[in-house]
Amino acid sequence: MSRTLIVYFSRPGENYAPGGLVQLRIGYTAYAASLAESLTGADVFRIDMAEPYPEDYSACCDAAKAHLDAAARPALARWLEEGVIEECRTLILCCPNYWGTVPMPVLSFLEHYDWSGRTVLPLVTHGGGGMGRAAEDIAAAAPGAFIKEGLAIPGHEAAGAKLDIQLWLTAHGIGMEED
Ligand SMILES: Cc1cc2nc3c(=O)[nH]c(=O)nc-3n(C[C@H](O)[C@H](O)[C@H](O)COP(=O)(O)O)c2cc1C
After folding, report:
1. pLDDT tens column, 10-59
2. Has this prediction a pTM greater than 0.90?
3. To pair with 51 at 20 to 30 A between CA atoms, which of 58, 71, 104, 150?
4. Which atom of ligand 1 is nearest to the CA of 65?
5. Is 19 exposed, middle or buried (0-12, 13-18, 19+ CB in 10 A)?
């Protein structure tokens, strides 16, 4: 079990890119999370909703906005294995910017656990809005955690962001984990 844990939320399907919508087999944030994995060797957990957001971009926007407006905490399909939280010292939390903040299923996940005393590094992919208020909302959902300066990556650049992610992780003292 690793002391650094990578958790991500991402959505394959229709997504925003400069010049129009594209069909993604792997979501942008999933790419970023896999780069963080290759740089740390850390365990990875994907946040899956019990009822995933639609693949259609505009339908997804509507559903996510409804969740935001209702401060919903949508049900998740699965949770971390027992003992993972106890072992974890640093959480690399990767998610897209949805409506200026994190997707509500990310708050479902965070609020389910006690992150106090852990370090949280937020990595947000976005379509131009950067981190938005992700850091503040993560901090509110993880009381007692140390929220470090996050990294914002334009979604369509995520696959080429290995160096940026490496520099950011190194700045926070995170590198390849020893076995
Ligand atoms: C429901 C929804 C809301 C979004 N809201 C924003 C936003 O407020 N600001 C922004 O910069 N990008 C926004 N985007 C674009 C995503 O943040 C961006 O495409 C992200 O990289 C998608 O990551 P993924 O492919 O891992 O799901 C939104 C996308 C969706 C689907």
Report:
1. 999 999 888 899 999 999 999 999 999 999 999 999 999 999 999 999 99
2. yes
3. 150
4. 1
5. exposed
